[in-house]
Structure prediction request, 208 residues.
Amino acid sequence: MPTAIGESDGGGFVYKALMKIVIIGNSGSGKTWLATRLASLAPLTVIHLDELFWLPGGFDRKRSAEELASLITQKRIMPSWVVEGVFGELATPFLEDAQALIWLNPGWPVCRRRLPARGSESKAHMGRAQSEAGLARLLEWAPAYSSRDDTRSYKGHLSLFQQFPRHRLCLQTEEDAVSLVDLAMQAGVSEALQRAATDTAECPSPTP
Prediction:
């Protein structure tokens, strides 16, 4: 069981534990943006699940299961990190160590508007480009987020959210994400996560 953020040591002293955060959501929901902003405010290493899943150079060639498992093990033991990605099955082992789970669920219209910028964002943060063909495939796949049943869908992410026992944050608008960053700038990342955490186990997409 990971140490909760801001947990007491039993003697009245409250300390800030090393932070481990997981961010999930559909493609285009703003996961990379939020992860990099939080990492700019705290000593967090950003771990992109895309970077683990795909071989270097793009988004067309998958890593072997053996290499992927080895990379996850290596990343998990790092002292502080923020993991972001759509791959629920890859996020699962990180959730065993995480103190906070953030689910970005702004709805498909927002994700659709943001996806064309994915290429430049991926190149900036991961050193890999999104090809036109790859973007076209993504634009066919991502709209089915709410109807698929796999670990990379709304249902898959809902299952992770409901089972996570520590700080859960449901951000349903771009303004929610900006507000979290603003709060983190004022109060610190760990305090912001505690204040923004929800008691509910649901995170519905906003009504258009």
User: Anything to note?
Assistant: The two ends are 39 Å apart (CA to CA). The chain has one domain: 20-196.
